[in-house]
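Sample entry (143 residues):
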Amino acid sequence: MGKTKVIQLSDVQRQELTNGHRSGESHAFRERCQMILLKSEKRTSREIARLMSCHKITVNEWVKRFEAEGVMGLKTRPGRGRRAILQASTDLKRVRAAVGRSRQRISLARTELEAELQKPFSTTTLKRFLKKTIAASNELESD
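Predicted structure, serialized as tokens:
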């Protein structure tokens, strides 16, 4: 069995990680902060992996990233996940026009938009896009 790597944390780093663990913006960030805090308590990667329900390689990768980039390195980088099918910046005007023409039947608006934008998508995607953009525009108007 290999030697257990221990992370030495300053008081500032420990406070940042504790705050991140308690009130971080995402669940993943909170877990990563907890991993580093546990690692600083002289625990093995295998033990932390068992506690966190992940693999020891995952723990070691986050430790390396923390050592290289600090607490900010534990945040999820932008660009992860699937790209949105409908973009507010390019498709909003067309979507509003199509929905305005077919207010009572969103499926007709979807069919029209699929042909116009040359992108296949579901009625649920269209509803979600409308809900999201309307909520965002309402927030802008209230400010």
